[in-house]
TrEMBL record:
Keywords, sorted A to Z: Calcium, Hydrolase, Metal-binding, Periplasm, Signal, Zymogen
Organism: Halopseudomonas pachastrellae
Lineage: Bacteria, Pseudomonadati, Pseudomonadota, Gammaproteobacteria, Pseudomonadales
Family of the protein in this entry: Belongs to the peptidase S45 family.
GO molecular function: hydrolase activity, acting on carbon-nitrogen (but not peptide) bonds, in linear amides; metal ion binding
Domain of life: Bacteria
Protein name, per record: Penicillin acylase family protein
GO BP of this protein: antibiotic biosynthetic process
Primary localization: periplasm
Cofactor mode of binding and number, as noted: Binds 1 Ca(2+) ion per dimer.
Length: 797
């Protein structure tokens, strides 16, 4: 046999082996959605019907059997995602990814989530007979049986590893990561204190960390110490660039009662805003037993739905944005660096030694510390010289428990029972939006809300030693903000505060910018009744009225004749596009691109000279967006002074300079023809897999980049970071839900990707095009239709 023929045969054999290997990967990792399986612990057979989108409809004779089945089917679709979420909060990513994740693990261990999780597990074991704990154990038993007898997900084969069993503390680790995602204070407090320490009191007073009518308090305990939280800011920046799953960032939800509904029953809409990733965040499942029924959206590793509907009621969530995080500057004993002052005596810091296991390397022992307020968050590795700052975080309260609340939502049969379940939630703070078939609509602020002396809201470093800023306990749930059956028949939440005329009753928080709240309030302010088609249009709305009001004021200053000669023709065309713009961030809009680049340049002109290197942390916070919107109408603010270029001092100079910089940037990036500056050329959405940048060819596990409508703080909220030539959409609607309580069979929803986590599964990407085009699918609730589905998995004892 000659040499060329040998080479051809070798290549053919190699290709055949690769094809067989790929086929084996697909076959051994695929979810089983028909046939029969045996599960230990079942008391009776369970039928699982899969619809056309891979959603399991579980019909069981007991809740125990239902949640055991849920754990199994959830794991076969999303085990790797479950594993990642618990590992992030627990500081265990390095076991999978090696030393590259060590800094992330050390950061989350420093926050104390894993220590809380161990306490949480011990507390639940003492309540082993309670229904929610029994169901949690059943759910995790289902997950662990899949680990034992199911197929191994593709990701583990690529990483050449396998998952370990799930335990009770894993639910707390997952909730800890969610709570961290919600805590805007981790960035905001550090930046506020930096500004107080380096700039004038007038600069500080013009910040908007909370809401435009809630200015930060002038009183502060002690002087600002601008370098103390810098290590934490740097850690957060690094961690967020490497997190393998999305963060929880915001949400929309609204309800109308029967009098405002065309169907004669309440309507509910909800679209939580969470970081995009592959797979998508939510897993849908429908559970029925003789005693209960719920269609829910489940977070990986948590057995009870955070969003859902029963035959009696429906509920949704948004972030409350309350201030449940505070930082304390601790005064160190000069004779003993392990002691800090505690009101009237020196108190020893607690030292925690934990082992982080690192794949391919020796285990590393880390040493963290905590004061009476909480974990020390600014220790540098190998150094104890920095004055310690401790973290008070409501999530770490030893009594914190949310499982009881989420379980209660599925079992309630009246508004009063639902409210009683809501009272059990501790942290993070949430807005719980509700509607039921008895024509009740409501919204509660749920979670334990702090009581502080002198109503201090702690937007900057507090004094850890004096005692006057110490935590005083929580308010009773009865005093939490709430709206129940308002006269106007409409309730909405877009991460805005509850309306409250009494300033002493206003809840301090890190609220989102006002854009979505103003737009949704306008859309809901009409006499005609609403139907689900109206709510669809609202969820997909991409207009920013704030942009139009800013442009109306700025355009007279955008004189093309004041531009460099090479930009004048381009500027004239760009100005014409802006003058006819309707404020919509549609993918074919050129004006959206022009306005966004101008707004980004204006933000840099306002803040970059004063903040210096910290501007990179500041520009993508809610505080930056809110402060820019506020300062735009305050021409006398000192922020308009330009420290680096005094010739550009003043609001008018900043506006025109930003206009020139925006045009120059657009010409550089998109060419000199404004007709070609479509929003789709600046923005794209790609759902990235956790292994996309960790393995060769890992990018094939992610979705393809696509154009989308929407932008930052439009109702169809497509979130991106500023300061880059291309806007990579990083977060947005993690699902869109529309519920009409007149007919639950008409419920609508959409997943940004699909149900399956296995990228080779038929249901991994099957909803992506619909989501991108603003379409919806039915959420089946009719058991006659469900029983007729062709895919049925029979689980037997």
């Amino acid at each position: 046999m000659n040499r060329p023929l040998k080479i051809i045969l070798f290549v053919a054999l190699l290709m055949a082996l690769c094809a067989l290997l790929i086929t084996w990967f697909i076959h051994t990792a695929e979810a089983k959605r028909s046939g029969k399986l045996k599960l230990e612990g079942l008391t009776a057979p369970v039928s699982v019907y899969y619809d056309a989108w891979g959603v399991p409809h579980i019909d069981a004779q007991s809740e125990h059997d239902a949640y055991l089945a849920l754990g199994y089917v959830h794991a076969q679709d999303r085990l790797f995602q479950m594993d990642l979420l618990r590992r992030i909060g627990g500081g265990r990513l390095s076991e999978l990814f090696g030393a590259e994740s060590f800094a992330t693990d050390r950061f989350f261990r420093t926050l104390g989530i894993s220590r809380y999780a161990r306490q949480y597990a011990e507390r639940l074991e003492q309540q082993a007979d309670s229904p929610q704990v029994q169901l949690l154990h059943a759910y995790q038993d289902g997950i662990n049986q899949y680990i034992d007898q199911g197929g191994r997900p593709l990701e583990y084969r690529l990483l050449m590893t396998k998952p370990d069993y799930f335990s009770t503390q894993d639910i707390a680790n997952t909730m800890g990561y969610m709570a961290y995602s919600f805590a805007e204070a981790f960035k905001t407090d550090a930046l506020v204190d930096t500004i107080r320490g380096t700039l004038s009191e007038r600069h500080y007073r013009d910040l908007v960390p909370s809401w435009p009518d809630q200015l930060p308090p002038v009183r502060s305990s002690g002087q600002p110490y601008i370098e103390l939280l810098t290590p934490m800011l740097e850690q957060i920046s690094q961690v967020e660039q490497t997190l393998p799953v999305g963060q929880f960032l915001g949400s929309n939800a609204w309800v109308v009662n029967a009098g405002r509904s065309a169907s004669g029953a309440p309507l509910l809409a909800n679209d939580p805003h969470i970081g995009f990733a592959a797979p998508a965040v939510w897993y849908e499942a429908h559970i029925r037993t003789p005693d209960s029924e719920v269609y829910g959206h489940f977070l990986a590793g948590i057995p009870f739905p955070l969003l859902g509907q029963t035959r009696h009621h429906a509920w949704g969530l948004t972030m409350l944005m309350n201030d449940d995080v505070d930082f304390y500057r601790e005064r160190v004993n000069p004779d003993d660096p392990e002691q800090v002052w505690a009101v009237d005596r020196w108190q020893k810091l607690q030292v925690h030694e934990e082992v982080i296991k690192i794949r391919g390397q020796e285990d590393r022992l880390i040493r963290t510390r905590s004061s009476r307020h909480g974990p020390i968050v600014n220790d540098l590795p190998g150094s104890l010289e920095r004055e310690p700052v401790s973290l008070f975080w409501s999530f770490l309260d030893p009594e914190n428990d949310s499982a009881s609340a989420f379980y209660g939502f599925t079992r309630a049969t009246s508004l009063d029972e639902f409210q009683a379940a809501a009272a059990l939630h501790s942290a993070p703070g949430l807005n719980l939006v509700y509607a039921d078939v008895d024509d009740n609509i409501a919204m509660w602020a749920i979670g334990k809300l702090k009581r502080w002396p002198q109503s201090s809201n702690g937007f900057s470093l507090l004094n850890g030693g004096s005692g006057r800023d110490d935590f005083l306990g929580y308010q009773p749930f009865e005093t939490n903000p709430r709206i129940i059956n308002p006269r106007e028949g409409v309730i909405f939440s877009t991460n805005n505060p509850y309306a409250e005329r009494n300033p002493r009753r206003k809840l301090p928080g890190y609220y989102a910018p006002t854009d979505r709240a103003q737009r949704l309030e306008d859309l809901l302010n009409r006499e005609a009744p609403f139907d689900l088609s109206d709510f669809k249009a609202f969820q997909l709305d991409d207009q920013r009225p704030l942009a139009l009001s800013m442009l109306a004021d700025a355009m007279p200053l955008m004189d093309p004749q004041q531009l460099p000669e090479e930009l004048r023709d381009t500027g004239t065309q760009a100005l014409a596009l802006l003058s006819s713009w309707d404020g919509h961030y549609r993918r074919d809009s050129q004006a959206a691109s022009i306005f966004q680049r101008w707004q980004d340049a204006l933000s840099e002109a306002l803040f970059a000279d004063e903040l210096g290197p910290r501007y990179s942390y500041f520009r993508n916070t809610f505080m930056a967006e809110k402060t820019l919107a506020s300062l735009y109408w305050k021409p006398t603010s000192p922020w308009w002074d330009n420290r680096e270029h005094p010739s550009l001092d003043g609001r008018q100079a900043a506006i025109t300079h930003a206009w020139k910089n925006a045009l120059q940037g657009l010409v550089k990036d998109l060419g000199d023809d404004p007709q070609q500056w479509q929003w789709s050329r600046l923005t794209s959405l790609q759902h990235k897999h956790a292994l996309s940048e960790r393995l060769p060819f890992g990018e094939y596990l992610s979705s393809q980049p696509v154009a989308v409508d929407g932008g930052n703080e439009t109702l169809n909220n497509m979130v991106f970071d500023r300061g880059t030539a291309q806007y990579q959409i990083k977060a947005g609607p993690s699902t869109r839900r529309l519920i009409d309580l007149a007919d639950l069979n008409a419920s609508l929803g959409i997943n940004p990707l699909g149900q399956a986590g296995n990228p080779l599964d038929a249901h991994a990407w099957d909803q992506a095009e619909m989501f991108n085009e603003g379409r919806y699918r039915a959420q089946l609730f009719d058991w006659l239709s469900i029983r007729a589905l062709p895919d049925q998995l029979e689980l037997q004892p």
